[in-house]
Amino acid sequence: MSLKAQITEDMKTAMRAKDTAKLGVIRLILAAIKQREVDERIEMDDAAVITAIEKMLKQRRDSIAAFESAERHDLADQEKFEVTVLQTYLPAQMSEEEIKAIIAKVVADTGAAGAKNMGKVVGAVKPLVAGKADMAKVSGLIKAALG
């Protein structure tokens, strides 16, 4: 079953269970998928759906930081709930050790040294960890590895 079909089935399940909070988040996901399909005239595969969900996660994390700095904990809690629902549709996240191993291999393969080669390393690492790691965290680890 494709990820998009799984999300649709979860929407039906949430409707039957009258779980309005989860239903709202699932509808947001499906709306984002449908919007991109209409805009780009494509049928999204699992990789594209994961990319869309990652974008939504980044937006939620930014909102959480903004709401907490403004001391709007009620809104931050709602965003945190949405993050937990969104994360259920992503593949299992890689551990920090796994990410560091990939970064070390890419740095060795490309011969990168110093911050000036960060773009090259990020470009090589990104497809290897797509959907399995937070790119902000990966970027920080790459910066640390390059010194």
Largest sheet: none
Structural class: mainly alpha
Could you tell me the radius of gyration in angstroms? 18 Å
Number of strands: 0
| Fraction of residues in β-strands | under 5%
Low-confidence stretches: none
Q: Percent range for helical residues?
A: over 70%
> In angstroms, what separates the terminal alpha carbons?
43 Å
SSE sequence, one letter per element: HHHHHHH
Estimate the global geometry from the Cα principal axes: globular
Q: Counting H and I runs of at least 4 residues, what is the number of helices?
A: 7
Mean pLDDT over the full residue set: 92
How would you describe the overall organization of this protein?
The protein is mainly α and 147 residues long. It contains seven helices and no strands. The chain has helices spanning 3-17, 20-40, 46-69, 73-87, 96-110, 118-129, 135-146. The mean pLDDT is 92.
Describe the secondary-structure layout.
Elements: H1 3-17, H2 20-40, H3 46-69, H4 73-87, H5 96-110, H6 118-129, H7 135-146
